[in-house]
Request: fold
Amino acid sequence: MKHSVVMIVGGGPAGMTAAIQLRRYGFDPLVFESKRLGGLLWNANLVENYPGFPGGISGPELVKKISQQFSHLGIRMKRQQIERVDYDGEIFTVESKYQSFTCDVLVLAAGTKPNQFPSGLIPDEAASRVYYEVSDLADRCKASIAIIGAGDAAFDYALNLASWENEVMIFNRGTEIKALPLLLDRVLKFSSITYYQNTSLNAVQSVEGKLQLGMVDVSGKTSYKVDALLGALGRSPTGPHRTERLSANLAHLQENGRLHLVGDLHNGIYRQTAIAVGDGLKAAMKIYQFLRGEDEQ
Ligand SMILES: Cc1cc2nc3c(=O)[nH]c(=O)nc-3n(C[C@H](O)[C@H](O)[C@H](O)COP(=O)(O)OP(=O)(O)OC[C@H]3O[C@@H](n4cnc5c(N)ncnc54)[C@H](O)[C@@H]3O)c2cc1C
Reply:
């Protein structure tokens, strides 16, 4: 089993920042990332609240910059999904399907996973046309795409898809729009985006290479044919399975500086890049103090 002093599960903004700061202290953290470095930020149309970019910066551009900083420092990264983490009283075991690792200090920065459509709504033959992140549709152009949701992500996704020259429909089952007003203003400027309210999805079928969406609105039932369906139904914390004995010691391990939960995974509704980055940085500083045997000031 390979041992590292510090391991980080998740290579989004939080995990990458923790690794960058730890490297600056002279440590050699090992980061596990199941998909690609950058995390959810790949989906952000325009990040306007991250300091240092007066005109805003696209999510992918910001990922590029953080990734450059990460690779310049020679930080170790393994592209593996971590399935399970355990703590035996002395060290952590971190397991993927293929390998087991151990470490003294663990950072969990696994972010969130998308909430899915209710089971039974999407038949198997339609599943390949159903998405939950707009970055998975980045190669689409001139397609018709339906988004279900009414929050920031739904409207942000629509802006990306329209700027890639797709026809977009946003379906809100109610009338309340939870997205930032500035996102709504931008969406309304695109003639290729149509917004529907009081319209719920109640059936999905795969028909001749397209999806047929059965919708219910105030006038009754209607249907739409689209190339893809994108769910923007909210997100929930994710990460590897934590064993019972780890979970039982969670608070204690966090207090004594061995375990750190950072970023969106831990931040409830306060899911923003600058917060995740700050969390990662703070965890690295605490780890530095812990490993040097210093008390917090
Ligand atoms: C459409 C959209 C627009 C946004 N716009 C903005 C914005 O304008 N401004 C802003 O500040 N924020 C924005 N955000 C939010 C921002 O992207 C997140 O707050 C930020 O990415 C959180 O960073 P994180 O590192 O905590 O988690 P994530 O970015 O989710 O990264 C977690 C990483 O962990 C990996 N992972 C998960 N489980 C495992 C596992 N078991 N093993 C290995 N790896 C694992 C994932 O693959 C992922 O790469 C937006 C988000 C979306 C979806």
Q: What stands out?
A: The domain at 124-231 is CATH 3.50.50.60 (FAD/NAD(P)-binding domain).
